[in-house]
Known about the structure:
Layout: H1 6-9, E1 10-13, E2 31-36, E3 43-51, H2 57-67, H3 73-77, H4 90-100, E4 107-111, E5 116-125, H5 134-137, H6 142-158, E6 168-177, H7 186-194
Amino acid sequence: MENVLPTANSALIDAGKSQTNFAKDVPKMIKYTLADSANNERIEMDYHIQTITKDDKFRILKFLRRFFFRDEPLNHSIELIPESEDSTCLELEEYCSMSSLENNLSLMAVTTSGAIVGVILNGKMDPPSDEEPEYITTCENPKFKKILRLLNYVDRNVNRGGKFRGLNILEVRIISVDSNWRGKGIAKALVEKSL
Length: 195
């Protein structure tokens, strides 16, 4: 979901500078090798991180349907996604595609065999308007509209007093890892690479 806790998940980026408020001199990582100690055997799990492009849209949405949409706390609390396995929220999918997949700021962790094991959907946070955005007023799903209104409320209040005026803000909108790969540092690597 866009803007979940934007004050905790946003990195300030000043135009032309690579410094952030969250990490200084983050080492660049190109390839990651993890060891899994299941059954006392050492299994090598290699992956690399690459930029998400518009061509990856359907693979990313399939991944999010499986590992994020149902379990995300806001979605879960209002039962946004029905229980049947093939169910989804088309407005949520469109929102993810519209806001994060075509800006070259989002990343995915991919195994050597090509399977996606983690994604981070990032975007540039624009200054929120006092008016309700069109994507909220035109949303036909009443449950998802509630989430959009909450996120918009958070956005409007995070920059109260103009604290971030004139700055570009990179916002982590969604981060999700394949449940079989959790606890192995994928999310951390995605955040570090984003920074």
